[in-house]
């Protein structure tokens, strides 16, 4: 192997760093604020946050959707795990061919809600391989059908929407049905996105976000 | 009425502002990080986030509780509403004598979990009148008893803990049982606490938090 070849396989440190995108809390907050105009056009009756990544954007979004004189949009949380993760030590969210398992779902009965005729916004932080979003949409559509069968109603009257902070421009492992409204605050290449809630040094994290222009707050 | 008396009843603008405490996202993140040492001593098996206020701290906390080689602590979400709020336009979280209603609760059956012998950490943003926390503890204790009756087990083996960002030093409307572990990141007078996720101008909000010393991040 020549020296040239060795060099070619070494990825410079700067290049590794460049593919890691630091996102600050204020940036996430502002992405939600910016997207809220489009989301208001979708007019969600309720929000379903996919945990853990969807919890924070969903809570932020709720403030921006609040209209004077109207009740706050309700946020329901669902938690999905990948089968292989349940008894493993992995922290990865999506794996090749992994089976999605419901760890927490909406308890329609106890919550006293159904999805019939509702406009439902699903919120997650990132659309990576689309596996989780596809699973969520499929399962919600099944719920709608069984609810319509039980109570009456047309499944087509339920409208599903998706909001993610970031859509990674990469081949997806699943397609979403055409009738699903899709809103991504940003599209970006298949970078490693470092969200603030995963950071154990938020000061350094925020500095890096500011350096990368991912935080508009400059005091 | 003399001029002096009139003056005495006027609250200066500065004083009004001083009773509103601005909390930045990074501040919340660091409060969770700081409290995580104490919370690790409690050793939670699972986290129950009270929505909407508990969602964000619970998600942040999860990162700090992660131990290498161990699975992530699961976060379940419950949503409570006050009866008067359900059909009103209010955004207040706690009212005198309001009845607490479960909007979302844990679906033990579908989630495949129970609380028997578990160490359960309840997370909310603020302990104001303690109404919501008291209700949550009471209901979870009922769940534990019925689960122990159904499956066997000693209800006393379940340990409940509470984590809040802020405990307001004010008369509480309810007491917590003595066997509940209580952790508050900060205690403060009965100020108006402005959390970042309620802000529609996060730049100004963060500036004010920094001015008040509620944000250690100073680039």
UniProtKB/TrEMBL annotation, chains A, B:
Record keyword Membrane present: no
Cellular component aspect of the GO annotation: cytoplasm
Domain of life: Eukaryota
Keywords: Glycosyltransferase, Transferase
One record GO biological process: hypoxanthine metabolic process
InterPro entries cross-referenced by the UniProt entry: PRTase-like, PRTase_dom
Residues covered by the Phosphoribosyltransferase domain: 27-177
One example GO MF annotation: hypoxanthine phosphoribosyltransferase activity
Magnesium keyword on record: no
Protein name, entry field: Hypoxanthine phosphoribosyltransferase
Lineage per the UniProt record: Eukaryota, Fungi, Dikarya, Ascomycota, Saccharomycotina
């Amino acid at each position: 192997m020549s020296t040239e070849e060795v060099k070619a396989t070494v990825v410079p440190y700067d290049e590794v760093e460049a593919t890691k995108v630091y996102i600050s809390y204020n940036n996430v907050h502002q992405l939600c604020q910016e997207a809220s105009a489009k989301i208001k056009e979708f007019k969600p009756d309720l929000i379903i946050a996919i945990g853990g990544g969807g919890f924070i954007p969903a809570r932020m979004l709720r403030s921006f959707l609040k209209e004077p004189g109207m009740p706050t949009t309700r946020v329901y949380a669902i938690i999905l795990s990948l089968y292989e993760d349940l008894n493993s030590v992995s922290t990865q969210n999506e794996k090749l061919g992994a089976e999605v398992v419901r760890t927490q779902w909406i308890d329609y009965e106890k919550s006293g809600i159904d999805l019939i005729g509702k406009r439902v916004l699903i919120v997650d932080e990132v659309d990576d391989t689309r596996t989780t979003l596809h699973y969520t949409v499929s399962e919600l559509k099944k719920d709608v059908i069984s609810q319509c069968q039980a109570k009456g109603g047309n499944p087509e009257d339920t409208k599903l929407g998706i909001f993610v902070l970031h859509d990674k421009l990469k081949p997806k492992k699943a397609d979403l049905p055409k009738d699903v409204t899709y809103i991504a605050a940003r599209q970006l290449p298949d970078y490693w996105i470092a969200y603030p809630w995963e950071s154990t040094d938020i000061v350094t994290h925020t500095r890096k976000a500011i350096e990368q222009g991912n935080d508009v707050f400059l005091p």
